[in-house]
Amino acid sequence: MSLLAISPLDGRYADKVAPLRDYLSEWALIKHRVLVQLRWLRAMSAQPGITHVRAFTTDEQILLSRLEADFDQATAERVKAIEARTNHDSKAVEYYLREQLEATSLADMAGSLHFACTSDDINNLAYALMFRGAIRQIWQPAARGLLDSLVELARSTATVPMLARTHGQAATPTSLGKEFAVFVHRLRRQLRQIDVQEYLGKFNGAVGAYNAHIAAYPGVDWLSFSREFVEGLGLTQNPLTTQIEAHDYLAELAQSVMRFNSVLLDLCRDMWSYISLAYFRQQVVPRETGSSTMPHKVNPIDFENAEANLGISNALFAHLAGKLPISRLQRDLSDSSALRNVGVAISHSYLALMSMRRGLGKLEVDSAALAADLDDAWQLLAEAVQTVMRKHHLPEAYEQLKALTRGQQITRESLHAFIHTLALPDEEKQSLLQMTPATYLGLAGQLVALAVEEAAD
After folding, report:
1. Active site residue 355
2. Each residue of 368-398: pLDDT tens digit?
3. How far apart are CA 261 and CA 110, in angstroms?
């Protein structure tokens, strides 16, 4: 961790976001540019219609594979040194690879690197590979890990009664697990949309019309060759573009992660409130300090940290989703700087996932606090009583319960006294008399089971 880092991602949180560096750093961008350049050279070698790139020997194929696989810090630094001279980051990769090939049996092929390419042919594929890797290999497993933690919490508290609050006021009881199940369902739905996200790529030249390609080889089926090359990288071809891939898929990805983040933000704030209400105790870590002046404090810092990072992530994603699909005429360079911040947005979301999972792992349910809230809330059964009264056509059912309970302190005795006055069948009356706030849970337990089953699919 550098104390001189401007961004907390590279300073305070450097160790926490370390897994993302292989996909979202400048090093990763150079690495993936190298990969695309080398794959393109090999693809041309295997294309019968392209005659100036000869077939490669087995040893030459191994050499190219090693150039790709052995990419390291020294390689990246050499590319950056070349960039300092050329002032062009993508061209610096080409020149670096030329250096490497010129010292081998592939020296005659060095001039075929970057053939018929514009910079974005390389860059858009490199970025798509980077973002796909970061999301699928790092972010999605973290999201699923958090979802698993929520599923377990929902399962273990499926029938733990809890006083619900609507508008911040005491409301019909629910179960703690059912409220977690709601978030499991919401997050799983958003995660499914991220799971099927396409990562698009284009490979069609300076203005997207294969002009140079046709000038050199009019007989090659460039539409098919381009599609095969893009799909061979595991991406989906975008066949119609200007000089740049339009980034619509990145806007879709940004908006999908934003929705996931927003559900997490909702959960963070609820967890903060439940801890404030003492429904949860937080495990004490002896070496930690909660407050610089109040020794007793155990603050919900993990959820607060997550809330902050989710907000930053969404702010960046919102800008990127609105900016990236817009480019003047056939291209402007503003997307280049914007694209470098997609990784920042992903990283802040990842930090939040880690914080929330850590926070959930510290929680212990305080059943006594939950029970105490419900034991003092017999007015919550007014809903059940008036609904049964309406079932049997008793007059002014809602109005009678409103007069009895609204703004009043209701006890078990006063509610039961009212129920005894009602002209209800004995079976219905006994059912209401046996009901308590803690047992008035509807189908909460079944709904938890539904969410748990859904998450397992």
Report:
1. no
2. 999 999 998 999 999 999 999 999 999 999 9
3. 46
